[in-house]
Inverse folding.
């Protein structure tokens, strides 16, 4: 039988245990096209962000990494990522996403499409093709270049290309908007662009973010136009005079909740010098780290663990 003093000790230990086990929310990194989690650049990127923020970071791999990033349709990549985050117990109470290039549209797919997934608090996007890109990104490898050359002749919005070449899922040709809306399998759904198929759930989920950090690279030679990293894009029917995000229909008609987030002060439109994904450590610390360490939570199952400890 416990005396009063033992009861006080239990309460104090429970309180101290709760404080000691409170930590920043974990985060995942979704790498870009032609990359993979085991590559040194990605590994170092995740480690630096973890060390600086005090948050546990994970690189989430889809398939075999590099080849999958080029060849598996983005809707399937998103489905795989969804199942993975649902199985990661560390993410149960919420998590943050850091997206690199193509990884950003998969990250947004997690937010909008992943039924039953853990909530995403902050989304930090580096060089994301959010409004599309008017060109297939550089292939970078002989095998991939051969694949692209073989399939692109059938038309970027053909079933063959859409099912064989992942980035075709966000290629948006301003001079063929009808073909894009009809044939592109991923981005029109992600951006709620199809009039009779707009989904209020996607909009609600995206507009529920606590912060949306959009980082554009001033000298980006991969994304066309570079302003797509901010949701800016060409007007329909033209390949010049890029519209700022606030002048696009996606924003003014608020198809995905971007305007709602912006009006609430939750969108950060940031730009850094350098080419695509060429970000300095200083800019990482300034523009990414604060959004990885400001959220905290108490480690799950603490109460049960404490009770078990004091029942013995």
């Amino acid at each position: 039988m416990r005396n009063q003093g033992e009861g006080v000790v239990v309460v104090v230990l429970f309180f101290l245990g709760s404080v000691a086990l409170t930590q920043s929310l974990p985060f995942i990194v979704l790498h870009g096209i032609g990359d993979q989690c085991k590559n040194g650049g990605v590994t170092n990127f995740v480690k630096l962000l973890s060390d600086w923020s005090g948050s546990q970071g994970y690189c989430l791999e889809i398939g075999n990494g590099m080849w999958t990033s080029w060849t598996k349709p983005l809707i399937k990549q998103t489905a795989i990522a969804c199942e993975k985050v649902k199985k990661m117990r560390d993410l149960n109470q919420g998590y943050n996403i850091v997206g690199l290039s193509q990884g950003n549209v998969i990250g947004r797919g997690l937010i909008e499409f992943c039924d039953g997934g853990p909530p995403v608090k902050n989304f930090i996007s580096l060089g994301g093709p959010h409004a599309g890109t008017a060109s297939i990104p550089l292939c970078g490898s002989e095998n991939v270049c051969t694949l692209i050359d073989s399939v692109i002749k059938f038309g970027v919005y053909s079933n063959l290309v859409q099912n064989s070449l992942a980035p075709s899922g966000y290629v948006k040709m301003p001079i063929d908007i009808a073909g894009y809306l009809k044939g592109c399998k991923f981005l029109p759904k992600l951006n709620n662009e199809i009039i009779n198929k707009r989904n209020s759930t996607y909009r609600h989920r995206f507009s529920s973010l606590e912060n949306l950090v959009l980082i554009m690279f001033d000298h980006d030679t991969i994304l066309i136009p570079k302003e797509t990293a901010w949701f800016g894009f060409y007007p329909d029917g033209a390949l010049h005079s890029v519209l700022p995000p606030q002048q696009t229909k996606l924003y003014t008609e608020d198809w995905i909740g971007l305007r709602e987030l912006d009006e609430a002060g939750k969108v950060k439109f940031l730009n850094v010098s350098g080419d695509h994904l060429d970000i300095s450590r200083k800019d990482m610390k300034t523009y990414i780290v604060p959004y990885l360490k400001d959220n905290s939570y108490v480690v799950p199952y603490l109460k049960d663990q404490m009770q078990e400890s004091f029942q013995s």
Notes: Residues 196 and 307 are 53 Å apart (CA to CA).
